[in-house]
Write a structure and sequence with these properties.
heterodimer; A: about 750 residues; alpha+beta; Aldehyde Oxidoreductase, domain 3; Aldehyde Oxidoreductase, domain 4; 7-stranded mixed beta sheet; 5-stranded mixed beta sheet; 21 helices; B: about 280 residues; Uridine Diphospho-n-acetylenolpyruvylglucosamine Reductase, domain 3; Enolase-like, domain 1; 4-stranded antiparallel beta sheet; 11 helices; 13 strands; about 35% helix; about 25% strand; binds flavin-adenine dinucleotide
Chain lengths: ~750, ~280
């Protein structure tokens, strides 16, 4: 079948682009939906995990004898129960080490042992009876400190990759990355004005409302089932099977409804532990993280330290752009610095550009993806400098950006040359937006920023079954974290020519479909959507064949149009069109069930750009900040369900507001997290936020039959910078550290006042 | 009430009074405390009413934040006290939380406590040895610790009768707009004479020391003045000077000291306005 790769931008959609209720909505608001912690099984045990109180310690001995004797304790696992089956796969070994500490505990909260007991009380008591003999080691949690030559080293196996000659001495620097083109030094020589600044951002957590939870059930025959809250149950299955030395076919994983993930549920933490406990106890075991455990032992994003230097000519053309990005991603390799370095300058059309990234390990929990991993921090640094440069050359920030913006044909800072992209349209639309011209009140400032995200495709498999009453059951393998079931139903209905509510989508378990990559990289509406379209086309071909059989004409003489099989032309014969329901009703007599399938590795995810505008008000006496107005303009390619596209735009902006103003991992001198709860880890509450205004632009992605681009991640890229630019304008002082909490703002204001007084 | 006190006195293990439970249940759930006995006082009728007495107001220990906010007379007389209690938590928390619970939890950042101290409130304590009445500021002695002895329960809060031309106000600093713990809290209560001169004042600070602070120097800065800029500057300076804060995850020392002065100024201005001053 030829892949339909011409975007149908002129196409008139019937169902796609409407805003029906989501199929999972009622269950979620009535409490009927089953989340991770909602599953039970006969004979179920409670699993609890013992965690290291130390940031860095050698584990000399673990004594579980006393705990094992406690009545009601059915199994205890430690590192001894997790032999290394990873066969030299370093990334998999890191996961193994992360889910259960081995030689050392590498961060406060690192799992050291786990217990399965008849109830929570017994499990808690048992944890107290496990004796762990620690040798406490010096620790490091700050990225710049961790890079110093005398820093405590976490792993003596890390010899920095990507530098010549390769060092012989272990350090905390895992790898150096470099992206770019041209000659930055030559570019800076041509510049009239150069701005160079250093920025810092603190680690933040995705803050999903649902803590990690799972129910594992391994039988004496070695067959297992796992119910789990995750963004990718196929990933969970494969990872757990490999870590535990099981056949993949012997583990069936079902994804629960999910109370948020934002990237944080794209790996495993408690799942292999629950399986190991269940296997040992021969009973079902449920493990549910507390919020405290979520903060300390799941995967927040990186904290960063970034230098940016950009040069421009007097008339506002960038001559060179250079950045060095240092990201710590916790105790193991894999901070998102590579994406940070690739995306830092992706919004601009640059002759000379370079971005260098360092992936650094520290004594913190192993980071996991967080919405456009690595990009928001890089954009914060770059867009802050862009704004400052614009003012220095006497241009409005928006005009400066329009002048230097990347467009179709631009060689991007990370390599590829762009096809049709939506950056300039978002900027031009922003300039026309009423927000841009609205007057500002006292102590208020306006900021803006642009942002970019790659978007991904990936392995996908979809099945579509036509029922005898003309309804359709759609099975996808990508957990629905943003309303994707509704979008899939819309696309299937569009192709089949039937109403939206005739299609029902489910997230099928791992034994029902081929492998699906996790729901990440803003890939699902794009990739699972495209698979759904092709599965629907596969089904309509079969529906046509059945109609042909009924009519007694050749298959090629039947086409599918407006929900009906029709004779292709006057020569085919004169038969009244048959609806999907009519063909389906006769399926049993015409060859059996009718189904469509599609499996592939999706390519052609279109990159996406956004421009955000923000007004902030700063109380000059206390440093308190309020976001008074916020507008998101973003290219969606094609908005399949516009309400959920707007929801993604707003959600990204809101998480950005939290990150910019108050959210942060605060470590004490002892290397312990000070604020492992929502009281002192301050995500925004409703009353902190203005209504987030949204504008959807549709510049079709040539890689998708409807032009869809991913939209879920780009929206968190510009906020840190847009808010920093607004707050800096309101406060009259440039802020270079996140979060811009009131004490930080007040300190910056006082410093500025002191300077002013000294100058007078 | 006496029976409740006797139950508490008798218990050999750890025993707690349960009012709204918005502190206690959280601590129980997180495993900070493992009590042997909880005595719920909400069903004792005397704890649930607000009475207007010749001396002022008698507020039962289990009266919730929401109930305080619905009492028109109390709100008119002590708007600062009521607004401080109404700042606690969210709508849901308001339906359960009490000022006495706020006081006995003994957090330095408790919102209603500075306003009660500025108002000159007292508490009536019932215990194995009978009743006693003490000023609010004598209840908390350190973070998480009170001066209450085993078996003692606070029965009610007494607020004095309000003189004419009086007003009070409470302001707190939090980084968000709600559901947060005060980084600094300031309460001011003032009485003016017919000419608008301040003849009486009490100023109290929260979250800047191990316990609530009554700041006599701050009151002195206002008494005898028309609460003009100069007096307010002196007030701010006195409040900043009184602070003995720590650096922690919620704010730096410098920040707390500076903001205590800023909020004191703003709270005093609101109190003056409520007292009818211009
Ligand atoms: C979501 C949330 C938000 C919150 N926000 C705030 C806030 O903004 N500001 C703030 O100050 N606090 C806040 N709190 C804390 C708490 O709500 C308040 O301290 C509240 O006033 C406690 O009252 P309570 O009746 O619920 O106390 P309880 O939890 O019932 O009791 C607290 C303590 O006081 C003791 N106690 C209670 N009554 C008596 C009595 N009559 N005699 C002797 N001892 C007694 C108890 O034994 C216990 O030790 C918040 C709590 C939550 C859960």
């Amino acid at each position: 079948m030829p892949l339909d790769s011409t975007p149908q931008d002129k196409r008139a959609f019937k169902v796609v682009g409407t805003r029906p209720l989501r199929p999972d909505g009622i269950d979620k608001v009535t409490g009927r939906a089953k989340f991770g912690a909602d599953a039970t099984a006969p004979g179920m045990l409670v699993g609890r995990i013992l965690r290291s109180p130390h940031a860095h310690a050698r584990i000399k001995k673990i004594d579980t004898a006393k705990a094992e004797r406690l009545p009601g304790v059915k199994a205890i696992v430690t590192r001894a129960d997790f032999p290394d089956h990873t066969n030299g796969d370093a990334a998999l070994f890191d996961i193994l080490y992360n889910i259960m500490a081995r030689e050392k505990a590498l961060y406060e909260g690192h799992a050291v042992a786990a217990v399965a007991a008849v109830d929570a009380h017994t499990a808690r008591e048992a944890l107290k009876l496990i004796k762990v003999d620690y040798e406490v080691l010096p620790h490091v949690t700050d990225v710049d400190e961790a890079m110093k030559p005398n820093a405590p080293v976490l792993h003596n196996t890390i010899l920095t990759d990507g530098v010549e000659p390769k060092p012989r001495k272990p350090s905390n620097i895992v790898r150096r990355y470099e992206f770019g083109h041209g000659d930055v030094e030559a570019g800076f020589r041509r510049a009239d004005i150069v701005v160079e600044r250093t920025f810092k951002t603190e680690a933040t957590h995705q803050g999903y409302i649902e803590p990690h939870a799972c129910l594992a059930n391994v039988g004496p025959d070695g067959q297992g089932e796992l119910w789990v809250c995750t963004q990718g149950h196929f990933m969970v299955r494969d990872t757990c099977a490999r870590l535990l030395g099981m056949d993949i076919s012997k583990l069936r994983v079902t994804a629960s409804e999910i109370g948020g993930g934002f990237g944080g549920k794209t790996t495993v933490f408690i799942e292999p532990v629950a399986l190991a406990l269940s296997r040992k106890a021969n009973r079902p075991v449920k493990v549910v993280m507390s919020r405290d455990e979520v903060f300390k032992a799941s995967g927040p994003t990186a904290s960063t330290s970034i230098d940016v230097k950009i040069g421009v000519t007097k008339d506002g053309r960038i001559t060179a752009a250079d950045a060095t990005l240092r990201y710590q991603g916790g105790a193991f390799a894999g901070s998102p610095v590579e994406f940070g370095a690739m995306s830092a300058f992706a919004c601009y059309d640059l002759e000379n550009v370079r971005a260098i990234g360092y992936d650094v390990v520290t004594n913190r929990p192993k980071q996991a993806a967080y919405r456009a991993p690595g990009a928001p921090m890089a954009a914060f640094a770059v867009e802050s400098v862009i704004e400052e440069l614009a003012h220095k050359v006497g241009m409005a920030g928006i005009d400066f950006r329009i002048k230097n913006a990347a467009h179709e044909g631009t060689k991007s800072s990370y390599g590829p040359t762009y096809g049709p992209i939506g950056l300039l349209p978002t900027l031009e639309r922003a300039k026309q937006h009423p927000h841009f011209k609205a007057p500002l009140g006292p102590n208020q400032g306006r900021g803006m920023a642009c942002g970019f995200w790659f978007n991904f495709g990936g392995q996908t498999c979809v099945s579509l079954n036509v029922n005898s009453d003309g309804t359709v059951a759609l099975s996808v393998g990508t957990p629905d974290i943003g309303g994707s079931r509704a979008s899939m139903c819309l696309m299937a209905a569009e192709e089949l020519g039937i109403p939206y509510d005739k299609v029902r989508a489910i997230v099928a378990d791992t034994s029902s479909l081929g492998y699906n990559d996790v729901t990440d990289g803003s890939r699902v509406t794009f990739a699972t959507g495209m698979a759904t379209i092709h599965a629907a086309r596969d089904a309509t071909r079969k529906l046509c064949a059945r109609a042909a059989q009924i009519w007694g004409i050749p298959e090629e003489a039947v086409t599918w149009e407006k929900g009906h099989a029709r004779p292709a032309g006057p020569n085919a014969g004169n038969f009244p069109p048959m609806s999907l329901a009519e063909v389906a009703a006769q399926a049993g007599a015409t060859g059996g069930p009718i189904a469509g399938h599609y499996e592939y590795s999706a390519d052609g995810a279109g990159v996406s750009f956004a421009t955000h505008i923000c007004d902030a008000e700063v109380d000059p006496e206390t440093g308190a900040t309020r976001i008074v107005r916020y507008t998101v303009l973003q290219d969606a390619g094609k908005a399949v369900h516009p309400s959920y596209v707007e929801g993604q735009f707003q959600g990204g902006a809101v998480q950005g507001i939290g990150w910019a103003l108050n959210e942060e991992y605060i470590y004490g001198k002892d290397g312990r997290l000070q604020n492992a709860g929502f009281l002192d880890y301050r995500i925004p509450v409703c009353s902190d936020l203005p209504m987030i205004d949204t504008v959807i632009l549709e510049i079709p992605n040539p890689g998708h039959p409807y032009g869809v681009r991913g939209v879920g991640e780009t929206s968190i890229v510009p906020p840190l910078a847009a808010i920093a630019n607004a707050v800096s304008a309101a406060a009259g002082v440039r802020l270079t550290s996140l979060p811009m909490s009131p004490p930080r703002i007040l300190a910056a204001l006082e410093q500025q006042n002191a300077k002013r007084i000294a100058a007078e | 009430m006496k029976e409740a006190a006797a139950l508490l006195a008798k218990e050999k293990g750890s025993a707690f009074v349960l009012a709204g439970g918005t502190d206690l249940l959280v601590r129980l759930r997180t495993g900070f405390i493992e009590p042997d006995l909880l005595v719920d006082i909400k069903r004792i009728a005397a704890t649930r009413s607000i009475q207007v007495t010749p001396g002022g107001f008698r507020i039962g220990a289990a009266v919730t934040g929401a109930e305080l906010g619905e009492h028109a007379k109390l709100k008119k007389a002590w708007p600062g006290v009521v607004e401080s209690a109404n700042l606690i938590g969210s709508k849901q928390v308001q339906g359960r939380c009490t000022m006495v619970g706020n006081l006995c939890n003994a957090s330095p950042a408790a919102d209603s406590v500075p306003a009660l101290v500025a108002a000159g409130a007292k508490v009536v304590i019932v215990g194995p040895k009978g009743k006693r009445t003490v000023p609010v500021e004598q209840v908390p002695v350190a973070p998480g610790r009170t001066s209450l002895k085993k078996g003692e329960i606070i029965e009610s809060i007494l607020l004095p009768k309000r003189l004419s031309r009086s007003g009070d106000a409470y302001l707190r600093f939090i980084p968000r707009t709600e559901m947060d713990i005060a980084v600094v809290g300031v309460a001011a209560s003032v009485t003016l004479d017919a000419k608008g001169v301040c003849i009486d004042a009490r100023v109290a600070l929260g979250a800047v020391a191990p316990t609530v602070l009554l700041v006599p120097d701050a009151a002195k800065a206002l008494i005898g003045t028309r609460m003009d800029d100069k007096a307010l500057d002196a007030l701010a300076a006195a409040c900043s000077a009184a602070c003995r804060p720590i650096d922690d995850k919620r704010g730096t020392r410098e920040f707390r000291i500076k903001v205590a002065g800023v909020l004191a100024r703003r709270a005093a201005q609101i109190a003056r306005k409520r007292a009818g001053g211009r």
